[in-house]
Design brief:
Layout lengths: L1 E3 L3 H9 L18 E5 L3 H11 L6 E6 L3 H10 L3 E3 L11 E4 L3 H13 L3 E4 L8 H14 L3 E2 L8 H7 L4 E10 L12 E7 H7 L5 H10 L4 E6 L6 E9 L2 E9 L10 H13 L9
Parallel strand pairs: 1-4, 2-3, 2-5, 3-4, 5-6, 6-7, 8-10
Antiparallel strand pairs: 8-11, 9-10, 11-12
The structure holds nicotinamide-adenine-dinucleotide (NAD).
The site of nicotinamide-adenine-dinucleotide (NAD) has 30 residues, from helix 2, helix 4 and helix 8.
Length: about 290
């Protein structure tokens, strides 16, 4: 495994990636290998890297950055990749960076990545609930010809909800039910921890409310949210109900939790993997 540090970075990578002139995906959809870096080497990154190690990702996952360098190194070693001590160290080479770190990382780091004309996949979607910040990112993407991708995450039915939002959505609500320990409490009884709007929920439960943020952004409404700590469940459940001029829909997702982070659902990582694979597809299905 190689480790990027200081001046070694330039020398090693000039040899290793002679063709890695950084051209972002918006500019060049024909390029055969999309070079990808990960920001945040936790549960989601681990699943994505496992797919990459089996050659099932469809892109070249090469660079790994985490505030805990050891984590970056550990994941990098699975794919003969490169752990970096600074996220900027990968930006000369990659086409796209997957953020799988935190809302704070999105606010602090994503603007710099977009300024460099690189595309981003954002997993910590709660950060995008701030309309001013979202506008800032969209303006940066426009100016620098880069793209911001937000996968559907730990939820199903987003395609239908996006289609429904073309018309008039009159009601949309989300009930999230999780084991108490994954919400950071201990209880023998069902407890409603929160009832209110998604915009507030993402601040109170930043690691648990990405689904509420994704829904809200997709349909441009501040979704009504109820969060329940339920000692009877072992998985993360999301129930979504939508009504509008299209009719009504109701979805229930029973998610398997990630082994290393019970707050996070496996489906969230899979949604990023599917998005990465779709970047190379010539025909797309689903809205
Ligand atoms: N979109 C969705 O549906 C969805 C679902 C689950 C999780 N998420 C979000 O995705 C993110 C990653 O989830 P996870 O389960 O992999 O988390 P995790 O806690 O397992 O891993 C996060 C990693 O990011 C690193 N990190 C955090 N802040 C950083 C920073 N500022 N700079 C560099 N590294 C940093 C941590 O050290 C850790 O290794 C979280 O914000 C989580 O809330 C989104």
């Amino acid at each position: 495994m190689k480790t990027v540090s200081d001046d070694i970075l330039i020398e090693e990578n000039e040899d290793t990636f002679p063709e890695c002139t950084s051209v972002n995906l918006a500019n060049n959809h024909e390029r055969s290998t999309i070079l990808v870096g990960i920001l945040g080497c936790g549960a989601i990154a681990d699943i994505i890297t496992d797919f990459a190690s089996k050659g099932k990702l469809g892109v070249d996952l090469k660079f790994f950055y985490d505030q805990d360098f050891q984590r970056a190194e550990t994941l990098a070693s699975k794919v003969n990749g490169i752990g970096t001590r600074n996220v900027h160290d990968m930006l000369d080479y990659v086409d796209l960076v997957i953020e799988a770190a935190s809302q704070k990382a999105v606010r602090k780091i994503i603007p710099h990545i977009l300024k460099r004309g690189k595309d981003v996949i954002i997993m910590s979607v709660g950060a995008l609930m701030d309309p001013e910040f979202r506008n800032q990112l969209e303006n940066l993407a426009r100016t620098n010809n880069s793209r911001i991708y937000t996968p559907s995450g730990a939820i199903v039915g987003l395609d239908g909800i996006k289609a429904a939002s073309v018309g008039d959505i009159t009601r949309i609500n989300l009930v999230t039910r999780k084991p108490p320990e994954s919400l950071g409490i201990l209880t023998d009884e069902e407890v409603v921890l929160y009832e209110g709007k998604a915009s507030e929920a993402v601040h109170k439960f930043p690691q648990n409310m990405n689904v509420a943020a994704t829904l809200s952004i997709a349909c441009k409404k501040d979704v009504d949210v109820r969060i329940i700590a339920d000692p009877k469940v072992k998985h993360n459940y999301h129930e979504v109900q939508v009504a509008g001029d299209f009719g009504e829909l109701k979805t229930t997702t029973r998610n398997m939790n990630c082994a290393t982070n019970p707050k996070t659902s496996v489906l969230a990582a899979y949604s990023a993997i599917k998005l990465l694979k779709s970047l190379n597809e010539k025909s797309k299905i689903g809205t």
